[in-house]
Amino acid sequence: MTDTVDKMPTPALPPDQIKAIPVRHYGRWVAGAAVVAVLVLIGIAFSNAKINYSIIPDYLTDGTILSGVWHTLYISVLAMVLGLVLGVILAVMRMSSNPVTSTVAWLYIWFFRGTPVLVQLLLWYNISLVFPILNLGFYKDEMNQVMTPFLAALLGLGLNEAAYMSEIVRAGIQSVDIGQTEASHALGMTQGKTLRRVILPQAMRVIVPPTGNEFINMLKTSSLAYAVQFNELIKRATDISSTSLAVVEMYFVASIWYLILTSVFSVFQYYLERRYARGSTRNLPPTPFQRLKKNLRLFGSFSRPEVAR
């Protein structure tokens, strides 16, 4: 009887008597304090700099700056469309069983990915040194008249983007199971119809996220068109700074507009990715508005006083 009593388990303490001691993370506090100190020093440096911050809001809506914003958006969209179309063609050529087309596509990708965008822009802008006359048979003119800053920027940005988009499209196509192609051919579909109706729609789930990132990057890369005298945002800001001597202020204005453009298109990219992810997952990530609504609901439940029962 005594042994039985000794072997009985000790009753657990009630939850209100358990004292939980949190783990101390001193390294986090030190790292956080160091980051805050660096940010404070940077803020002090900018506040003491000879920068006229009061003129920045006025120049944000200046006609010259808005013209530069429009040209930046315009050239970015056209260059992205050109890169996407050529990228699909190059991806199909790269995966072709024809050794000539696959080799040509590989050489194109190798060259345009291996050389800087700025060099490509300058080469197109000075292409008249190689081809003084453009003769297409039905059209003939001096290359200096044909190769405008807009065309040089479009070709330099678009052809370079095509090399990257081809690899993105190729990765998306290869992510689709080969059984989809075999089943389509068994139904009598041609190779082109299989690509348009079966392969590409399924590959979009893989293609869309990096394509959105490439377009956001294109918005910033378009600033290199300043080197070929295209009137994009940086060129317009520089023109104003050369007369007003507000150099740093104009860089702040350009940076704010780039942040606005990239933020807006990041939201579009989020919803586009969410749309194409519907067929691959049952639990879609909440939208920013849904997340905000949930947080407000939780805050309301915490702030509501409890009712005594």
From TrEMBL:
Domain of life per record: Bacteria
Transmembrane stretches, start-end: 29-49, 69-93, 251-272
Domain ABC transmembrane type-1 span(s) in chain numbering: 69-269
Gene3D superfamilies linked: MetI-like (1.10.3720.10)
Membrane disposition: Multi-pass membrane protein
Keywords: Amino-acid transport, Cell membrane, Membrane, Transmembrane, Transmembrane helix, Transport
GO biological process: amino acid transport
Keyword Transmembrane annotated: yes
GO molecular function: transmembrane transporter activity
GO cellular component, one term: ATP-binding cassette (ABC) transporter complex
Cell location: Cell membrane
Keyword Chaperone: no
Xref: Pfam families: BPD_transp_1
Major place of residence: membrane
PROSITE patterns: ABC_TM1 (PS50928)
Family of the protein in this entry: Belongs to the binding-protein-dependent transport system permease family.
Name of the protein in question: Permease
Species for this entry: Streptomyces brasiliensis
Organism classification: Bacteria, Bacillati, Actinomycetota, Actinomycetes, Kitasatosporales
